[in-house]
Amino acid sequence: MQSKRRLILFVTAFAVVFGFLAIAAPLFAASKEKVLYSFCTIYACKDGGDPTADLIFDAAGNLYGTTDSGGASGAGTVFELSPGADGTWTETVLYSFCPGGWPCADGQQPQGGLIFDATGNLYGTTSGGGNFCFGITSCGVVFRLTPGTNGTWTETVLYSFCSASGCTDGASPNASLVLDAAGNLYGTTEMGGSYGSGCKGYGCGTVFELKPGANGTWTETVLHSFGNGKDGTYPFAGLIFDAAGNLYSTTVMGGPYGWGTVFELTPNANGKWSEKVLHAFSYGKGGESPWAGLIFDTYGNLYGTTEAGGAHNVGTAFELTPGAGGKWKEKVLHTFNGEDRKDGSNPVAGLIFDTAGNVYGTTTWGGPYGWGTVFELTPNANGRWTEKVLHFFNGDGRKDGGNPYAGLILDAAGNLYGTTTVGGANVNGTVFEITP
User: Fold this and answer.
1) CATH code at 277?
2) What is the total count of domains within the chain?
3) Of the residues 22, 186, 312, 382, which has the fewest C-beta atoms closer than 10 A?
4) E-strand spans in 68-226?
5) Is pLDDT larger for residue 24 or for residue 80?
6) Residue 289 host element (H or E)
């Protein structure tokens, strides 16, 4: 989380130094925001604080997520929010990390979101802690939470990173996981891998797979180590599958121009995986530094965001379209402009589609109050996209949140849900709902 903030501050400062260009203000669509829960309402923030990850729903309409801090030991939580008949939501902490105190063998600081399996277990990652993290804070674990009959949840560490010398197995997973049909888990680590001498000596990151065994153990395999000089570095986002079983995601930095990549991993018959850079970002209008993952549309095009770059150097929303010969073409759907304070800036979260083909996302900064936005992008018949700002966060310590690092989810009625890292009753973040 701290490394994430430091880089965002650097890029933002860089943009300010070199100045911005003015463009026409985006449309603003009136919408209603409701703070469902403000964190740190319990003494010493035992209910959690600083949520940075996307939320998920269960079949009953309850929300689940993680907080980067807070909990019984201040090392983060997994929480559930349940709606009541009167419109209020009740928070339950399902698990507090590091109950026995440092060095937190069960993990600490979960920055990624959660996923369910078919039997109702939750899976996630922590960016720190683990069995091999003595004196180091950025090792991390993959964990499972299993519900019990009495409402309690039991945590099991499926894998602790840095078990291999030099952390060649990866270090610091920051994103959500993805499950395949066989029950294998896939994810990324921001650091570690085979190229430990690169990326300031900590490795440049990995893509990994975890396979369950008959005896309850899980075996990790590194599918790709970043930092070979041709690919990207620092994969911060999670992965997605296509119908053929290929994996896709982004790297924050690296590539031929140094400003990040979109990559594909393809499984081979021999069990190995081949990496291909589909797009390399360069300094300028095409966007720089994609922190977030990707989504597909029904035609096989990829969509995502960059935290910097674009016409005003405060980020873009982009589309990648596959073409002949395996080439992919980038199109900037929207370039953000936080300078006139009528648009957001620096999106670090991914995008989602609604059933009509509109795209939704958040920006961490920008807007008239400087605390970020929720936006909608609508495709037009001429191939262009129109942006509407659905909500400007004001960072108010009592009424609203600010600085959303996470993306959004939709319910069946078209309402949007997300988290902010600051603001709320005790300025430690919120869960919010927006009704367009």
Assistant:
1) 2.120.10
2) 1
3) 382
4) 77-83, 89-96, 115-116, 122-126, 141-147, 153-160, 178-179, 185-189, 206-212, 218-225
5) 80
6) none
Mean pLDDT of 1-5: 46
Asked, for residue 406, whether it belongs to a domain, the answer is no
| Contact call for residues 21 and 311 (beta carbons, < 8 A) | yes
Strand partners, 329: 321
pLDDT in tens, 138-168: 799 999 999 998 889 999 999 999 999 989 9
Domain assignment present for 37: no
Whether the CB-CB separation of 377 and 386 falls below 8 Å is answered with yes
- Tell me if 135 sits within 8 A of 118, measured CB to CB: no
Distances 371 to 343, 393, 400, 428 between C-alpha atoms, Å:
11, 5, 10, 14
The yes-or-no verdict on residue 1 having pLDDT over 50 is no
pLDDT digits (tens, 9 = 90+) for 271-283: 899 999 999 999 9
Please report the pLDDT score of residue 103 as a whole number: 84
The three-state secondary structure class of 33 is strand
64: its two tokens: 């689940």
Residue 44 lies in a domain: no
